[in-house]
Design goal:
single chain, mainly alpha, 3 domains, two-stranded antiparallel sheet, 2 strands, K_chnl_dom
């Protein structure tokens, strides 16, 4: 009898979590907005880590965030239904590794820069699309996405460079130097006043330039190309159309695109 009672309750809880995480109703949007605010606060803590790591309150905040991320991982796993699908998501493994860096800050602090990747989790939620719509930026979602990708890349590289090349310096100066080097390298400005030593440093610079230029080009393309809306064609599946499109360019099927590109 207990199992017969518990299983239906667990199923209801999982359905409610799935609705909150992936739904578009008012309660789900509010829930996702709260998660977004918490995620942004956590990212702020991560970025301030080099300045706070020597303070007694750092470990307290660190373990509080670890408990939150562990709870959110459990909730996301419950909302996904399929464990395989949950484990196939790259952000799941990012969160797991972030959790490890929080639980063992003295041993894994060097990899704390990966925590900035949680910004990508924010862009995957329906509330992000709703915010773009409210701000009138839905038609420029590609530009926003390209900018976020470049922003995350800059801070990931900055964290990597700081960890492996400037960690022994003063936390404030070292992090600023790492950010300065990253921006100068990605933009191919190459002032040369700050360089990374050795073969490993040269390879880091090369990879940063190649990926950074690609992201800059992607951002430039998103800015200059004509606005598009996302609306899958019922006939052929083409998802990108001109804002005023009446027929699909691929198959000629009559489209019924809602105003302002809201699907």
């Amino acid at each position: 009898m207990p199992d017969a009672t518990i299983k239906p309750r667990l199923k209801i809880i999982r359905q409610q979590l799935a609705r909150l995480y992936y739904g578009h109703d008012t309660a789900a949007i509010r829930f996702q907005f709260v998660l977004m605010v918490i995620d942004l606060a956590i990212i702020g803590f991560f970025l301030a880590g080099p300045y706070l790591r020597d303070r007694p309150s750092y470990l307290i905040l660190d373990y509080m965030i670890a408990a939150w991320i562990a709870l959110e991982l459990i909730a996301q796993w419950s909302a996904t239904y399929s464990t395989r699908r949950f484990l196939m998501r790259p952000l799941t493994w990012v969160d797991i590794f972030v959790l490890c860096t929080l639980l063992f800050p003295h041993w894994l602090f060097n990899f704390a820069f990966l925590r900035v990747a949680r910004i990508w989790a924010i862009t995957q939620r329906p509330v992000f699309k709703l915010m773009l719509h409210r701000l009138g930026l839905l038609e420029r979602a590609d530009v926003v996405s390209a900018f976020i990708n470049l922003f995350v890349f800059l801070f990931l590289v900055t964290g990597f460079v700081y960890t492996f090349f400037f960690y022994q310096e003063d936390p404030g100066t070292g992090f600023v130097d790492a950010l300065y080097f990253t921006v100068a390298t990605v933009t191919t400005t190459g002032f040369g006043d700050i360089t990374l030593p050795g073969t490993f440093g040269k390879l880091t610079s090369v990879i940063t330039m190649i990926v950074g230029i690609s992201l800059f080009v992607r951002l430039a393309q998103a800015i200059v190309r004509p606005n598009k809306v996302t609306f899958p064609c019922p006939q052929c599946g083409l998802s990108r159309h001109d804002i005023d499109a009446v027929h699909c360019k691929a198959c000629g099927h009559l489209l019924n695109i809602p105003d302002e590109g809201v699907t």
